[in-house]
Structures are given as structure tokens and as C-alpha cells.
Amino acid sequence: MRSSYTNSTVIIRMACAIVFLVFTFLYLYSFQADVLAVAQHVLSKGQTHYNREIGATLITTVLWLIQLGIYFWTRLDGKVHALTYFPSLLILTVITDISPNIDGGLSWGGWLYAIPILVVCYVGLVWLVLQIQLPDTLKPSHGLFSKDMWINLLTMACMIFLVGLFANHDDVFHYRMQAEQALLDGDYQKALTIGKGENASDSSLTLIRITALSETNQLGEKLFEYPLVGGTMSMLPNGSSVKFMMFPESRLYKSLGGWFKQYMPPYRYFQYMSKHHKVNKKLDDYRLCAYLIDGKLDLFVQSLRQHHDSLTNLPKHYREALVLYNHLRKNPLLSYHNDILDTDFQDFESLQHKSKNPLERYSMLRDSYGDTYWFWYYYRNRIPN
Questions:
Q1: Rounded Cα gap, residues 93 and 1, in angstroms
Q2: Residue 301 in contact with residue 322, Cβ under 8 Å?
Q3: What tens digit of pLDDT does each residue of 183-223 get?
Q4: Contacts of 42 (CB under 8 A, 6+ apart)
């Protein structure tokens, strides 16, 4: 009888440990590595670098040792053994609840009040369980699929759910940190794949994508395949709403031809660089794409004529803009025709008149031409009512 009791206890403890170790390691390694990396970067002022393998292993080990200490202190077995994992999972939640504004300083937020309350409640619950000492509470039933086993696994599942609920699960922030880490590693193509196809974005993620597109000379080719939050103001950092968390701004400005300590709005930066004859190919693409983002087709055409001797081999969005310009202007400054794009634009226009329902029309155009400059020009991320 004693051997059966011990075996059941060991099985329950092993099952809870496996669930905890597997979840914690994968959660840290796969889902939260990017936000932990930025937290370490900011808190160490860029002096240290987070390694996901070492970090996930070390944190998981420390949290497991805390659980073992709680178990040897309380000796909670049977139906309530999973409660010994609560402090470790609480710590896991707190350290992965990283604010997107952590670069402004570490803030405990609501945890400053929640942690003491939760600790007091936990200690009180453990004391109450130990005082009651009910046989059916502390002594496990037998078997791998016993009632006690399922109670413990359900308790673990509930606590794991709460970890995911209260830790950082901001998709855009995760996209930003993953893409920015790719920038740091020089893997610009990877940065462009993260979060692609998702509508969720912000100004800083737009900046990261524009930087990656510029570094791969794809700005005029693929810019309008992404949601552009913030318009042209998201093309350069401003230190607040548009910023890098880890990637050095100097690397971006060095690529564009000039770095200045004071922040400049994009158009002012373009003007200054042009005045001092420091416009390179990447900055020229920046300026042309800025005109396109703002729908300034006349300025786009003027700049294109001034800096491009040939209209052959132009990027996709430049060709689309020229086709649109020639359809909108009776006396265009620059005549341009492309049989394939002219046909596509005619189809685009026909779809615009195909449905009287604004949402239905918007949906049809987005599905067929959502990655074109034409769609951006007419809708600019505005969904009709």
C-alpha cells in the first residue's frame, strides 16, 4: 500500500515537472526571446546580448529550483501538488511582461501591487491546505490517469493560461523585436518576412521594414506590400513614436549618406542632404517613395526626370505611379506607357466601379491589387464605412 502511494506521488510530480519544463523552455525560447533580448539590451545599456538558448535554459532551471524549494517546504502532494509551481509561474509572468516602452526605464506597473497580494493569498492558501490535512486532499489516488492526475494537469493548464494572458502578448511589439533583431544580425530578408501579411503594425515596425527594404534595394519594388503606419514620418526615427530599440540609428543614416545628432523630419533631411550634394541611390529612393506615400505624383515625376536618365528597369511601384500619373494628367510632364500595367490599371478602375457597396469594392480591390501603389493612392489604409 505504501509503495502504491509513493508511486502515485512520484508519477504526479513527474507529470507536473514535465509539463512545466517543456512549457517554460519553449515559451522562453520560441515566444518571448525577442522581448527578453530587448529588455536585456536596454537594461544593460547595450553592453550585453541575450542568447535565447542559454537564457531559456538558465531561466527554466532557476524557476524549477524555486519550485523544488517550495515543494520541500510545503510537501504538497496529491490533488494540490501543482500549486507548488505557482510562485515559479508568477515569476515567469512578471519577467516576460515587458512593456513596449521599456527604453524609457523599467516599470513594474500593476505588478507593484499585484505581487504582494498574490504572495499573501498563496501563503494563506498553502497554510489552509496544510491545516486541513484531509486524506483525500493530500493523498493521491492511484494510476496514471487517476482523478488526482487530471486535477493537477488542469491546475497546471489554468496557471499556464494565466501566464499567456498577463505576460506580454502584443503581436506588433513581438514583430518589431524579431524584425529588429534580424536587422542587427544583418539578415534583412528575414526582417521583411516577419509579420508580413498581417494588418497589425505601428510606426516603428514601418521604420524597420523601410530600413530592411532600403538595405536590400527593394524600397521602390515592395514598399506598398506592407501596411504603412505613420506615413512619411515613419521613414526616419524621431526618438519617440518612431524608433529603434536595439538597432543603431547610425547604421541607417550611414547607409543614407549622413548622420546628424538632432532628429530631422524626412523632407527636411532630404532637403539638407540635397543642398550639400550628399544624395546617394538609397536616399534618392527614400525621397521618391516619400512623394509616393504622400500622393505627390507631380513632385515624384519631377524628381524622377531629374535623377533618372532612363525609364527602363524601374522598380514596380515607380512604374505603377507613372501609369497612374499618365491617366490622371491631361498634359503629363513625362509620357509613360506599359502595355501590361496599362491593362492592369484598366482592370483596377473597372473594379472600382463594379460595386456600389464601398466595403465590397474595397475588399475586391484589396484582394486583387492590395500590394500595388494604386491601391495605396486611392485608399491609403482607409477602410470605407
A1: 40
A2: yes
A3: 998 999 999 999 888 888 999 999 999 999 999 999 999 99
A4: 102, 103, 245
Residue pair 301/333 in contact (Cβ under 8 Å)? The answer is: yes
Helix (H) or strand (E) holding 265: none
* The three grid cell numbers given for residue 73, joined into one nine-digit string: 517546504
Residue 261 DSSP symbol: S
What is the per-residue pLDDT across 150-184, written as a single tens digit (0 to 9) for each?
A: 889 999 999 999 998 888 888 899 999 999 999 99
**Angle, alpha carbons 233-237-239 (nearest 5°):** 115
The burial of 48, by beta-carbon neighbours within 10 Å (0-12 exposed, 13-18 middle, 19 or more buried), is given as exposed
CA dihedral of 9, 12, 16, 19, whole degrees rounded to 10: 150
Helices (H), the chain: 2-26, 33-43, 52-74, 86-95, 111-132, 135-138, 147-166, 171-184, 188-193, 203-215, 219-222, 249-256, 266-275, 281-293, 297-307, 316-328, 339-352, 358-369, 373-379
Cβ–Cβ under 8 Å, residues 289 and 214: no
Give which of 134, 1, 161, 159 is closest to 77, Cα–Cα: 134
Contact between 295 and 377 under an 8 Å Cβ cutoff? The reply is: yes
Q: How long, in residues, is the chain?
A: 385
The CA distance from 125 to 24, in Å, is 24
Cell numbers found for residue 128:
489552509
* CA 278 to chain CA mean position, Å: 34
For residue 279, the one-letter residue type is V
Contact 296, 289 (CB under 8 A): no
Please tell me the pTM assigned to this model.
0.86
Residue 73 pLDDT more than 60? Answer: yes
Are the beta carbons of 36 and 94 closer than 8 angstroms?
no
Tell me the pLDDT tens digit for each residue of 105-160: 667 778 888 899 999 999 998 888 887 755 544 455 555 567 888 889 999 999 99
